Amino acid sequence: MLKSCVYSAGCKIISKVLKMKQCITIRRECVWCQSQYALFRWIIFVLSVTGFTVGAFYLLWFTPLVLYVLDRLHLRNFFLPDISCIGCNNFTYPYIVDNRYFCADSDGKLKPVFLLILVASFHANLDARQAIRKSWGSLREYRQQAIRTLFIFGRHADKNYNYQIQYEMEHYGDVMQVSSMYV
């Protein structure tokens, strides 16, 4: 009986030792799994940060939101280049009604204009021009920046329409007429 107790006790010890070996083996495998898991977490983190950065860059650079923010902070001139182009607007038609001092102040000195709105209009559309003059065309300044609206016409075969344009030039001062029939 003593022999069987010793044998059973030895079996229990051996089985515990074997279980401990299995646990050690499992822990080694788990440590290897944890390193893989840490690498996987690192890759996911890098990809998410990269995706967020690219998305934020796209949102800020290619949407008007960035222009709005830069305008509100008065930083637009620091980050966006001046897009004026010398020689881009070559206009070769002579003027019939020349409005050369349209962008000048009351002293005749040229004043820089932030936004010049050119409205190509037909001579007979006087009511439409009057509506524009009374609504959004009446805006002269936005955030201390000058805004001007100018109506441009071509030459009309009917001289009465051409006289009407000269009358509008004298009365409103916001028209210009060129000698081309197609404007």
List its traits.
single chain, 183 residues, alpha/beta, 2 domains, five-stranded mixed beta sheet, 52% helix
Brief overview:
With 183 residues, the chain is of the alpha/beta class.
List the helices and strands and how they pair.
Blueprint: H1 2-62, H2 64-72, H3 76-79, E1 95-97, E2 115-120, H4 126-134, E3 141-142, E4 145-153, H5 159-171, E5 175-178
Parallel strand pairs: 2-4, 4-5
Antiparallel strand pairs: 1-5, 3-4
Helix pairs in contact: 1-2
Could you walk me through the main structural features you see in this protein, from its secondary elements to its overall organization?
The structure is a single chain. The chain is of the alpha/beta class and 183 residues long. The chain folds into 2 domains: 13-82; 95-178, no CATH class. 52% of the residues lie in helices and 13% in strands. The radius of gyration is 40 Å and the shape is rod-shaped. The termini are far apart. The model has no long low-confidence stretch (mean pLDDT 76).
Give the domain tally: 2
Q: What is the overall shape?
A: rod-shaped
Mean pLDDT figure: 76
Provide a count of the helices.
Answer: 5
What is the number of strand segments? Answer: 5
What's the end-to-end separation, in Å? 120 Å
Outline the low-pLDDT stretches: none
Please identify the structural class as seen in this structure: alpha/beta
The H/E string reads: HHHEEHEEHE
The percent range for strand residues is: 5-15%
Biggest beta sheet attributes = 5 strands, mixed
Oligomeric nature of the chains: single chain
Proportion in helices? 40-55%
User: In angstroms, what is the radius of gyration?
Assistant: 40 Å
